[in-house]
Specification:
- It is a single chain.
- The chain is α/β, with parallel strands linked by helices.
- 43% of the residues lie in helices and 15% in strands.
- It has a 6-stranded parallel beta sheet with strand order 3-4-2-1-5-6, with helices on both faces.
- Helix 2 (30-50) packs parallel to helix 3, helix 2 packs across helix 7 and helix 3 runs parallel beside helix 4.
- The chain starts with 10 loop residues before the first strand and ends in an 8-residue tail after the last helix.
- The site of farnesyl diphosphate has 20 residues, from helix 1, helix 2, strand 2 and helix 3.
- Residues 16-21, 34, 37-38, 41, 58, 60, 65, 76, 79-80, 83, 132, 179, 204 line the site of farnesyl diphosphate.
Amino acid sequence: MTKAEPAPARHVAIIMDGNGRWAKKRHLPRVLGHQRGVEAVRRAVRGARELGLEALTLYAFSTENWSRPDEEVSDLMSLMKRFILSDLEEFAAAGVRLKIIGDYRAFKPDVVELVDNAIARTQDNIGTTLAVALNYGSRDEIARAATKAAQKGPITPETIGAELDTADMPPLDLLIRTSGEVRLSNFLLWQAAYAEMLFMDVLWPDFTAEHLREALETFAMRERRYGGR
Ligand code: FPP
């Protein structure tokens, strides 16, 4: 009997790790690593569109990242603002829908306003969904979802799943972490239950569309059994 072709990945998530190490290796300030990281974000989003992904979720700022020095937090915020200002039109025109997971309303009002406008500008797009995790922590997301589910009725995996920030997205197929670190760092813990995982030995600023294509090829070769045989 011939084996069925594996279904292509619909939803890929990335823990973009290694900006600091990229800069350190070159004796450059960390902010330059983050700057190059934004360029990798641009390549990843373009790649996701070209490869026909329905959704790409990027871990940009975790609930734990507030503990970084004020200057680094502020650099990351500035980079995000600059990214929206410089790239929104290209992505909006290409059919990308921007979505945020996490409680981004904790950010400064100017960031919140920019993000809200970007969401509104792309809300009717039906191409790739770009979900950016901002002030996101998976345990926090699950606790919020469970609280909402409990207010509506019995708590089951389905009722919790329906309240997660990712509820309107396809199931997570592939979770990638760059830089060689092998942990989830409080990212999409629930959604990763049956996702394939790929830990890539590339620092995030060096990540290209070709890396994404290779990751999808690796995914396509894996056999997913969801606990069955
Ligand atoms: C991890 O590298 C990266 C981050 C904490 C931030 C990721 C943010 C960006 C790529 C830029 C902004 C995002 C968007 C969507 C425009 P690290 O600093 O922890 O690296 P290290 O582990 O090597 O120190």
